[in-house]
User: Which sequence fits this backbone?
């Protein structure tokens, strides 16, 4: 069996006949954040997954680390409630964030996945703010819908073709050898810049 | 086994132990169309499903029938290609439609499902037209995303709670009697008006 992106297994010995493909979430998150910082954003918030989700901690770690490297003290992480209803969770998380921070609101939001990001975009519009004029929004996973939202959603793609190829190779290898496949390379991600992200608005300070 | 909305079985005798729940697609389509006509639209196009899809013909039949009843001769049906990629199919169908019709373009579009409708909204924006200022868009099935698009998508909801209740009752009945359940009532639909539909723009003639 080949499992794609299950970091739940990270800390356990692999049962025989099992291969795990992991996406380089850390690198993807870093690329997305560094892109936002290059766009002059100094107030970047993270909409994280619900506490139980496995990859959320990895994104959060990278978020903390990158901000620290740049000596940015603006730092805001909000947890979405419910992994089954990303849109609604992203909407609520973003409304809460905008309500709590007022004029100190972020100029950019990075979300754990595109569903949360789309919910956040809706919340921003409902707060009479614009994307990306007031707040840039960056998703993750590059869902099919990302090309069709208004504005189109910038995201981090997890090169699906490559995932499929590596998964197939690992599967063949498992079938031939009937044992655990050795460590597989982390699958690369790609930053996809569309219309929901841009340069930071001029400082309101 | 209880199957929800499979009109494939409409013309065949039911095997024992099988119940089919059907949604009243015809009524839902009629309601959506009549609402658009009340909003002064006289040029309504239908983005139909791919030719193989079963409920498409029902929506198309209702579309033809309602237009005929109102003696409207504007009539345009475009078929989406691919039921697996609704967003892209809706996008392409709508681009084709706008390209082909030019100034005779519709002022309202009814789509077979919300994915096709969202693709159509993107195509309209990419043609420098606005929803609903230039073209109203109405989806079908009321997907979760419909509340989060910009603008929010008007759609026809298939009362999910009621579907679940009726499905459960049919299932229990099947388990108890171990035979085919008699004809089930068609499940009602509900028109959900959000922001993607409104009154027709003033005539451009």
Assistant:
């Amino acid at each position: 069996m080949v499992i794609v992106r299950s970091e739940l297994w990270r800390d356990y010995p692999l049962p025989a006949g099992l291969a795990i493909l992991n996406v380089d979430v850390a690198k993807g998150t870093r690329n997305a954040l560094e892109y936002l910082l290059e766009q002059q954003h100094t107030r970047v918030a993270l909409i994280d997954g619900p506490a139980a989700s496995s990859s959320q901690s990895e994104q959060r770690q990278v978020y903390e680390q990158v901000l620290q490297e740049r000596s940015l003290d603006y730092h805001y992480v909000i947890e979405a409630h419910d992994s089954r209803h990303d849109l609604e969770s992203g909407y609520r998380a973003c409304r809460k964030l905008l309500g709590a921070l007022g004029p100190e609101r972020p100029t950019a939001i990075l979300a754990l996945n595109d569903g949360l990001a789309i919910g956040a975009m809706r919340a921003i519009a409902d707060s009479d703010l614009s994307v990306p004029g007031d707040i840039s929004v960056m998703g993750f996973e590059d869902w099919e819908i990302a090309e069709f939202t208004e504005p189109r959603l910038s995201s981090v793609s997890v090169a699906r073709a490559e995932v499929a190829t590596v998964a197939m190779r690992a599967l063949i290898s498992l079938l031939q050898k009937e044992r655990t496949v050795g460590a597989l390379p982390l699958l690369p991600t790609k930053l996809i810049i569309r219309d929901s992200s841009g340069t930071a608005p001029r400082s309101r300070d």
